[in-house]
User: Fold this.
Amino acid sequence: MAPMLGSLSVEGPERHARYELLGELASGGMATVYLGRRRGAAGARLVAVKSMHQELAADDAFAAMFLDEATLTARIKHPNVVSTLDVVSADGKLLIVMEFVEGVSVGRLLELAAARRTHVPPAVVVSVLCDVLRGLHAAHELVDENGRPLSVVHRDVSPQNVLIGLDGVARILDFGVAKAASHRHVTAQGEIKGKLAYMPPEQQFGEPVDRRSDVYAAGIVLWELLVGRRLFTARDDDELVRQMFEGTVAPPSTVAPVPVPRAIDHVVLRALSRERQDRWWSAEQMANALRAALEPASRAEVVATIASIAREEIEQRAAHVRALQTSRAPRLEREAQTVLDVLTARGNETIPEPVPFAPVTKVESPSARESARAVAESRAARRAQRRAQRRLRLILTLVGVGLLVVALMVLALVLGRKTREAEGESPSVRLEPTTTPTLEPSPGPPARKSRKMWGAGSLAAAARDRITADPVASRQY
Assistant:
């Protein structure tokens, strides 16, 4: 459990602060998540404050992309998407303020189920994935004020980014962060560690992604929830990629610990097609097919399943949140204090309650633009190189096939000539000079066998050859 950081009194000169920071909830490869409280005219509410790590915030290209994506995806308002309430960039900090949802991630749920040697019922899996797919579809369908599609793609659909609340509703979070991470030309250690196993082929190649890329990743999450283990595992990234491109995905019904309807196999395998045109064309279409394959569990059944598998985890997290809300530590740790200072704008100004999609201070420096341009040019060069390599492989393949066809044709001609020569040298008619020659075969089985073997044309040819070679026979004719 993360150490308690305490909270900051909002009396005195900081009485107008909009936020107070309560403590640390979790820390990962890209960010630290704090529990906070946001106060406004409607009262106070708990929030989760995600603070990107310093090495990411210091990268101008990442910061610019992060703010663009975070501001864009803050428009998504859907019950199956964790809402973004605020995006802040100041004093070298990048912060996302999100609604706080009590629950457990799918990744943690799978870990606990494996430790307890239990499983998530297929109907509950279907309910969770239908929620996820509905949230993804809402993001994919997002448009601007003029009705133009914004082409939002999550790019990081994974068990760690799916949160199942204590209300039985599954929500997806962290829209846009993966795109910003993928545009960094200096990769931080652990930045997207472990997420390669959920990337579709086109994303691994650096090609443009669309909604079907999220469908692929959702298919992997579905497979893992049904079977209870990771789909792709390897010792290193090279082996993992080779497994993803050359391996075969087993239908869940053949490897799941409990019976799974065969109709679900079709949903999963189509979502996991390597060619994106073979996948479900939208998350909504996949959700409809999944519901048709198996009736989703009710919210009460989802809650009961989560409680039975992750009861201790949920109780510990609830106790930690209660402790953070009630404790009054004298001061915050340095990093948390910096985050709080940014959120409260140093505490001396009156900050009104923000309207939805509040403007964000974007990083607009020449270095950021140059870095972003360099990244884009590098990616375009790599895509052009891969296209040239594919064209060369195609040309070599066609040349090889053409040479093989020519070789086969030559071989067929040679064999045909040898067969004809063999037929011409085999005598099938015997002519005696003392008897009247005839071209009719002698009666009886041997003659019929000879006709059957050689045919009438071959017999005539053999006879002509025999006459030419025997002058006596020629004179008798």
